[in-house]
Amino acid sequence: MLQQEVQAKPVLSRIDGRPADRPLVSAIIPAYNAAQFIGKSIESALAQSHHLLEIIVVDDGSQDETAVVAEGYPITVIRQTNGGPASARNAGAEAASGEWLAFLDHDDSWFSNKTECQLACVGPGVDAIFSEKSPGTGEVTFTEMFERNLGGNPSSTIIRAQTLRDLGMFDDDPALMGVDDYNLWLRFLLKDHRFATTSTYYNFTPDANHYGGNPDKMLAAELVNIDKVAALANLPQDTVERRKRRLRLGYMPALISARKLQAARGQLKALGFDRETAKYWVAFLPEWTLNLRRGALNEIGRR
What domains sit in the chain, N to C, each tagged with a CATH number? Predict the structure, then answer.
């Protein structure tokens, strides 16, 4: 009887001292130079209908008032030297006490029912939940995930704390910055874990310095990720090269549009000249020529 009473004793939230809802959930917000965004993110976590155990902001070596703003709320703030978002997420995960970890990027915000609705999808063998990218995402295999990134945005993700620790946390290699979440989902599936997917319960509002806006850096990280995961999964080299080719072709329009011509030229040399790549060899034209062409197309569009 005494044991039952001890088990039933509520765990108090570190936010306001009221009982935290079960399962216990820790919200983790990695933040870098986020003073103008962080308040909105924190407030969306405080507004969750599922009462959180704690909210942890990890200030990843910011040079602005991120930590000062965050410390104005009833949360835990951890300061560390800059190591990137994966490093900050890991620091928050290591400090967290919840059974589940819910990640939120500093420039995003959650709907108030996000945690509650996602936890309703927890079933036998389900170790993570995120917003689906397309119908049927929840049933994808490792092979399908390797062919296309169907993993959830970190701000949509809830994962069992023990599962993340068993996987060795996020890979905080700086060369993976921007795709460390994709790397996690591939390792997650490689270990036969299962996830569920839900509708989108968050607002994705990237700031001007969002890493995804740098196609040259993103492609470089994608290629490193493919090599790392291929080594873990012992994939055939032809499978790896086919995936890299699709990545290079997929990023080519963005590289040229952003005038990342040196990166585009390097990737074209790796691809070689053929029917698929022919249209992209305009990247070897002088930039002023491409700009002139863009200007002419814009003028035609205004007529």
Answer: 11-203 (3.90.550.10), 211-302 (no CATH)
